[in-house]
Design a protein that fits this description.
It is built from five helices and two strands. By secondary structure, it is mostly helical. The chain has a two-stranded antiparallel sheet with strand order 1-2. Helix 2 (10-27) packs across helix 4, helix 3 (32-40) crosses helix 4 (51-92) and helix 4 runs antiparallel to helix 5. Residues 124-128, 148-155 and 160-164 have low confidence and may be disordered.
Length: 164
């Protein structure tokens, strides 16, 4: 039996339907005990259907909804990335000579960073040396929610060290 046949087996369909009913009863404010009592009275449901099974069915239905929502959100994110990539390509060469196109390209790049889960404009330069070793420049991404300006400015580079 292949995967699609397994997923659509009569038993799996019955479980999915039972979970949908249990979730609907929960949405109406039913306790797990009340859900179990109502489910036991339904045709095709075991008279041994318990509160624990009601709880498991509601959780299973919610997990399925979350999975579907995640999949839908990922599809929307993918479509948005494609659209923004197309726009970026269309304006990239013009951005070298047209300030408005350059601003649009920077805006598109910012949106792409967000959709790709990359750090955004909360950056500062930090000068550090490990265990007294050589100093190196690195960009550090601040992931705090505080958008207030930093209280201290980054240190200037010592003579002979350049950041590029």
């Amino acid at each position: 039996m292949d995967l699609q046949q397994q997923q659509a087996s009569p038993q799996r369909v019955a479980i999915a339907e039972r979970r949908i009913i249990a979730l609907a009863l929960r949405k109406q404010g039913g306790s797990y005990r009340q859900i179990a009592e109502q489910m036991r009275r339904m045709e095709g449901i075991s008279p041994k259907y318990s509160e624990a099974q009601a709880h498991n069915d509601v959780r299973g239905a919610l997990r399925e909804l979350i999975t579907r929502m995640d999949e839908a959100a990922e599809e929307v994110r993918r479509l948005e990335l494609e659209r923004l990539d197309e726009l970026l390509s269309a304006y990239w060469h013009r951005a070298k000579t047209d300030p408005q196109a350059a601003q649009l390209v920077l805006s598109i790049m910012g949106k792409l960073e967000v959709l790709r889960g990359l750090p955004t404009d909360k950056r500062h330069v930090e000068l550090s040396g490990k265990d007294g070793g050589a100093l190196v420049w690195k960009v550090v991404y601040d992931t705090t929610e505080d958008d207030s300006p930093s209280q201290s400015e980054p240190p200037s580079a010592p003579e002979g060290i350049h950041s590029e």
